[in-house]
Amino acid sequence: MLTRYAQHALTWVDLVAPTPAEVRALMKEFDLDPLVAEELLVPSFKPKVERRGDSIYVILHFPARRGGFSNRSEQEIDFIIGKHFLITTRYENIDPLHSFAKAFEVNSVLGRGGATHGGHLFASMARNLYEALGNECDNMRRHLQDIEDKIFNGDERLMVIELSQAGRMIHDFRQSLAPHREMLQSLEPIGSRFFGPEFGYYSRELVGAYERVRTALENLHDSLDELRATNDSLLTTKQNETVQKLTVVAFMFLPLSFIAALFGMSLPVPLAQSPGAFWLVLGIMGILALACFVYFKKKGWL
């Protein structure tokens, strides 16, 4: 699907799961390198930044936002940045781009568009994407706070799965964003030669936006490690308490088992022929059990 937006002399073309016919039309209209046009048709596994003719080709992978818990961990966006145009290609819907498109249309209608070239528009769009990721980090931080509350409310066992899911999400975010700093730094000299020295400011601003997200993810990772350690300690303590109680109960029955085995022997046993032997032995066993219970209770073992 192809959607076209215009703002003054600047054109933004947004492609979602492009068809060969759409790519060929764009290649002719914007004089794109045939190799770039070919790459737009299929997802790429590696990010890249390179100059191709009269445009800059950028591939970045962003973490899949988990508000809807998508099965994919990454979402790819291809950017073709020209002096008077920007082409974005993606293979699934990405909410921040949808929001950016709405704002872009409103600014076009009101005549408030500030973008003067494709590099400026790319910087605004990428900054919007990083801000959306920052909001996702805030959501994950609140989720970790909920997990912390549940841990200290006695739900340690249930939180093992919650912590694992949160850890997987943070790991996916970190893995997806790991190459971004290198890509943005590579973009600065290329963009500065293409758009002029002012582009260096936009590029450094994007590096700053990326660093804020990366720092937030590092803080989330540290918080997750602390919560895991706390949860494991509480689980271990509870398990030790359970084992201790079971051991004490087993020890309480040890003398009772000994008496029962003693009177079950086929040898002559004192009191065995007494008419009230059963009740006498049962009373002795009860007194021993009660004495063990009182002793263990005073020791705090029960």
Q: Helix content range of the residues, please?
A: 55-70%
Shape: rod-shaped
The CATH superfamily of the largest domain bears the name CorA soluble domain-like
The multimeric state of the shown protein is single chain
Gap from first CA to last CA: 69 Å
User: Strand sequence of the main sheet, in spatial order?
Assistant: 1-2-6-5-4-3
Number of domains: 2
CATH fold field value of the largest domain: Beta Polymerase, domain 2
Which properties best describe this structure?
single chain; 302 residues; alpha+beta; Beta Polymerase, domain 2; rod-shaped
Give a written overview of the molecule:
This protein has 302 residues and is α+β, with helices and mostly antiparallel strands. The protein has two domains: 2-236, 2-Layer Sandwich (Beta Polymerase, domain 2), CATH 3.30.460.20; 240-299, Magnesium transport protein CorA, transmembrane region (Methane Monooxygenase Hydroxylase, Chain G, domain 1, Up-down Bundle). It contains eight helices and six strands; from the N terminus they run ββααββββαααααα. It has a six-stranded mixed β-sheet with strand order 1-2-6-5-4-3. Helix 7 runs antiparallel to helix 8 (277-299). The longest helix is centred in the last third of the chain and has 65 residues, at 199-263.
